[in-house]
Every structure is written in structure tokens, then in C-alpha cells.
């Protein structure tokens, strides 16, 4: 999965008003007719869904439709462009969708089963590097069995397939507008979603207006949205305070969130909406490197890391300690690392090492990316170094590299210990376990666990009732604690900063933490 800055439905939502007050607008427009201006540091890398497994999803969710989607507050896929289900008796291997009648793209062309097949097969044909084809590993073939019916035949049971189809990566495109074997490169976009893209200036702005032919679940509460793309969050926050934009999404630093919460004059008329996120940060141990090949070394680190201090000192309360790879808010979440190791304890860590015959401080190199996860990454690793060296059991050397160099290094297995982030494709525990295990995983360092890959995951994927597979994922997390190949550190919180006359911020994040712009509106009186 790509590492986009930001991903999961809010389990708890709270709006923190920085200043209370009231206002009445008298411009003659209703709330549903007024435009909203949203700022973000998350600009699209492409306008073609066949190439996007990244921040581009933000735009796609609002201008394209998918067969199924996540309506506000839902964590399981529900009908969008079609009614879908696994065929009875298919053991989660045959997924059938009946496309809704009368759907059209914004240019008037018909959206039918053939368009759906075309869109999915196009992803596979183009197979763009870094694109979403990797999400379709369980798909065998797509069949149109009637003008309004499309069938997906899978090569193995996969109850997570509907979740894949609900991602913006699987946006339905018009066959007349998008080449079958190459990406669209004219800078335009045609979909069937809530909005039409009227104008797009790369890294500057996107102008969205209501799609008059839209038929879907989204209840649009505004007349359109202007998205402004900022290179730096400082400029975005300034624009908010100067009322050049109505709301921000993605890119606020911990310091900016804390500053916005403060009671000071420049924050008058602003509000902050807080949501539990599902983006996580973790350490990866490359056991092919002698320095961390011994399990006691990894266990000692797990025994020493103080997550509470880490999030308080570095992230100032804008993140939460994480004790399993499956974060809070996702079914199957546990606190398995805490259950095993308890509170940080240098004496216990020393005992672990001494029992393994390790009597001298262990020298380790920790690697992190300098430009992928924000400015707090370097202080985060400095804090980890302080904690580990404070025990007298480790000597840590830190190395930071820009993302492209960093990525090339870990994929070649050059780093013994390195930090990564994960933003889920969909809100299911499978997406926090499966990507990290096996010979070919997203880590670049093979993690062989036959019990997880050969038993637990296949068994869970046969069960379409995802609430019935928590035992399998709890067991998988116990195995991960036993192996200590990955060490979860924290999960993020999500924030929308907005003018106090903007409503709907608490409903604007879907389970993938993709902004549902149609939920935002301007209060006409309050």
C-alpha cells in the first residue's frame, strides 16, 4: 500500500470550538447553494485512477463512483453504483453486482456493466508501477452476464474483495474517455460522482461543481467546492486564519494543532474537529542483518520503548500509543504488545539480553525518511534513541534519507531497523496484517509466518461476516508479538480545522479517511 499522509473511519468524533458565537448570512443563498473552499497539503499525483494508490484518492472519491462505498459512519461496503453480494455457495469466490438503472457519466454517456468491466480490466492491462493493480491479486476474471450485471470471479476465497472495490482506486471510468491500454494525460477527468471537475491546476487548485446527473448515496450539502493545494501547512493555516479558505484537511502539524487549540485572538472564529485515525507508525526489524537477527535484541527494544513519552513529547497529544498492528477503531484491535511486555522496564530488558549472553551495549543503526511523514519524524527517532540509550543497553546511530533514497535502501534490505508508516486501503484488520507478512510484502524484508499466511488469513477470507473473524486476527497479532519483527509505535489522530460557520466536519471523513466534501456546508444561521 502506498504511504499516503493520512487513512480510517473515526471511532470517536469530537468538535472542539475555539470560540463560540453566532452569525447570520443574508446573501440570498441557501446552505446547499454556497461554495466551500478547502485547503490541503495532499495534492493528487495523477488524475487517472489506473495510476493512483496515493493521495489522489481524495479527489477521486468526490468525482467518481465505485460499485460499493462507505457512506458516512459505515465501516463495511454498501451500495454506491450497484447492489453487490457474494453468490450463495461460492465460498467468497464469486462476487456479483447489479448496476443501478439510469446511471450516466457527467458527459451523458451510459454507465453500465461493460463500463465497470472496462474500468477494472484497464487497471490490470496498464499495470502502472505504483498503481492499484496490486490490490486485485485475488481477481481471476470479470464477466458481463447482462447489460446491468457484472460478475467478479476470484482465484481464491477473499471476503475482503468488496472492500477493495470500495476504494477510490476502483473508480468507474467512461470507456470513451479513457484509453484501454494507457493512462489519460490531457489533464481532464470525467466521472459519475457527486461533483464535476470544472478546472484543475496542478498543485494549485481544483474547482468542483455539483454533478446534475449524479445518482448515488451522497447527500450534497453545498453548491460546490474549491480545493486549494498548499506546499506547506504554515501557508494553509495562515489562509484559514485570514478567511481565504473555509477549512483545512491533511497536513496540520502537531504544533499547529496545539496552537489552534489555544485561546488566543488569532484563533477567534475557528473550530477544530478531532477524529481517531487509523494511520500507524512502526519499526521494522530486518532479521537478515546480524545486529537484530537475535530475538532477545528485538524483545529488549520492545521492553524499553515508552510510547506514552514518545507521543507526548514529540506529537503533543495528537497521536495515541499503539500496542498492536491493528489500530483502535478497527475490528480485532488488541493491546498485545502491552499485554506481553507491560510498562517500559530497563531491568527486564537487561535480563532478556543477559539471558541470551549479551553483556555489552548493542550497537544499532536506525533509519528513517526525512520527507515522507512530516517534520516530526526526526524528533521521533531522536526520542527513540534517547529512550534506548538511557537504559545503557543500546548505542543507536540515526540515519535520515529522502523518501526515494530511503525506499530504495529498505527494498534492498540495507537497513537493520527502519521506520515506516501505514495508511490503510480499507477498514478491515486484514489490511493491517496481510501486507506485512510473506516473502513478498510491503516491507522489502521477507517475514515468513506460515501460520498467518497459510492458515489464519485464508480462513478469515472465507468468511464474509467480518465480525466473525476477530479470533483469527487476534491470533495473528499474538504471533507478531512473539516474533517482534514489527514494533507498533503510535496511531494518528485526524483534524479538520475550519471557520466556525462551517458544519459537517465530523461527518466528512469516510472509513478510509478520504474527505467526503459533500458533507461540508455553511451555516446560514446559528
UniProtKB/TrEMBL annotation:
Pfam families: SBP_bac_5. SUPFAM superfamilies: Periplasmic binding protein-like II. PROSITE patterns: PROKAR_LIPOPROTEIN. InterPro entries: Peptide/Ni-bd, SBP_5, SBP_5_dom. It is found in: Cell envelope. Residues 93-441 form the Solute-binding protein family domain. Residues 1-26 form the signal peptide. Keywords: Signal, Transport. The keyword Signal applies. Belongs to the bacterial solute-binding protein 5 family. This is ABC transporter substrate-binding protein. It comes from Streptomyces roseoviridis.
Amino acid at each position: 500500500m502506498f504511504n499516503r499522509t493520512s487513512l480510517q473511519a473515526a471511532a470517536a468524533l469530537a468538535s472542539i470550538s475555539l470560540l463560540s458565537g453566532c452569525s447570520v448570512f443574508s446573501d440570498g443563498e441557501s446552505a446547499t447553494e454556497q461554495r466551500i473552499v478547502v485547503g490541503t497539503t495532499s495534492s493528487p499525483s495523477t488524475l487517472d485512477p489506473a495510476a493512483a494508490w496515493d493521495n489522489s484518492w481524495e479527489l477521486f472519491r468526490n468525482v467518481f463512483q465505485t460499485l460499493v462505498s462507505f457512506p458516512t459512519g459505515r465501516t463495511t461496503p454498501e451500495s454506491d453504483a450497484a447492489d453487490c453480494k457474494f453468490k450463495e455457495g461460492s465460498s467468497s469466490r464469486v462476487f456479483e453486482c447489479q448496476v443501478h438503472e439510469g446511471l450516466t457519466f457527467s458527459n451523458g454517456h451510459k454507465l453500465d456493466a461493460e463500463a465497470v468491466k472496462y474500468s477494472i480490466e484497464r487497471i490490470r492491462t496498464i499495470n502502472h508501477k505504483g498503481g492499484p493493480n496490486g490490490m486485485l491479486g485475488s481477481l481471476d476474471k470479470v464477466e458481463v452476464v447482462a447489460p446491468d450485471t457484472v460478475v467478479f470471479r476470484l482465484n481464491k476465497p477473499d471476503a475482503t474483495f468488496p472492500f477493495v472495490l470500495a476504494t477510490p482506486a476502483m473508480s468507474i471510468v467512461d470507456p470513451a474517455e479513457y484509453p484501454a491500454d494507457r493512462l489519460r494525460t490531457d489533464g481532464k477527468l470525467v466521472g459519475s460522482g457527486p461533483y464535476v471537475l470544472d478546472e484543475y491546476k496542478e498543485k494549485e487548485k481544483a474547482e468542483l461543481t455539483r454533478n446534475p446527473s449524479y445518482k448515488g448515496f451522497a447527500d450534497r450539502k453545498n453548491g460546490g467546492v474549491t480545493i486549494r493545494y498548499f506546499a506547506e501547512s504554515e501557508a494553509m493555516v495562515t489562509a484559514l486564519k485570514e478567511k481565504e479558505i473555509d477549512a483545512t484537511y491533511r497536513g496540520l502539524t502537531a504544533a499547529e494543532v496545539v496552537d489552534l487549540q489555544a485561546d488566543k485572538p488569532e484563533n477567534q472564529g475557528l473550530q477544530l474537529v478531532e477524529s481517531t485515525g487509523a494511520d500507524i507508525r512502526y519499526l521494522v526489524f530486518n532479521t537478515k542483518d546480524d545486529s537484530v537477527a537475535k530475538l532477545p535484541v528485538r524483545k529488549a527494544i520492545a521492553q524499553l520503548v515508552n510510547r506514552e513519552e514518545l507521543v507526548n513529547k514529540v506529537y503533543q497529544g495528537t497521536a495515541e500509543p499503539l500496542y498492536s498492528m491493528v489500530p483502535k477503531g478497527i475490528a480485532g484491535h488488541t493491546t498485545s504488545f502491552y499485554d506481553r511486555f507491560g510498562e517500559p522496564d530497563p531491568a527486564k530488558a537487561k535480563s532478556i539480553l543477559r539471558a541470551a549472553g549479551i553483556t555489552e551495549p548493542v550497537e544499532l543503526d536506525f533509519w528513517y525518511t526525512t520527507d515522507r511523514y512530516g517534520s516530526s519524524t526526526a524528533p521521533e527517532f531522536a526520542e527513540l534513541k534517547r529512550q534506548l540509550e538511557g537504559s545503557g543497553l543500546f548505542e543507536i546511530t540515526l540515519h535520515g534519507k529522502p523518501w526515494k533514497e530511503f525506499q530504495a535502501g529498505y527494498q534492498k534490505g540495507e537497513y537493520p531497523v527502519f521506520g515506516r508508516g501505514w495508511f490503510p486501503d480499507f477498514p478491515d484488520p486484514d489490511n493491517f496484517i496481510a501486507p506485512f507478512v510473506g516473502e513478498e510484502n510491503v516491507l522489502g524484508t521477507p517475514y515468513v509466518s506460515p501460520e498467518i499466511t497459510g492458515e489464519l488469513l485464508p480462513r478469515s477470507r472465507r468468511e464474509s461476516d467480518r465480525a466473525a473473524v476477530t479470533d483469527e486476527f487476534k491470533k495473528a497479532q499474538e504471533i507478531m508479538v512473539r516474533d517482534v519483527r514489527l514494533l507498533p509505535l503510535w496511531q494518528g489522530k485526524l483534524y479538520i480545522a475550519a471557520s466556525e460557520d462551517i458544519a459537517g466536519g465530523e461527518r466528512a471523513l469516510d472509513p478510509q479517511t478520504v474527505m467526503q466534501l459533500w458533507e461540508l456546508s455553511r451555516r446560514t444561521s446559528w
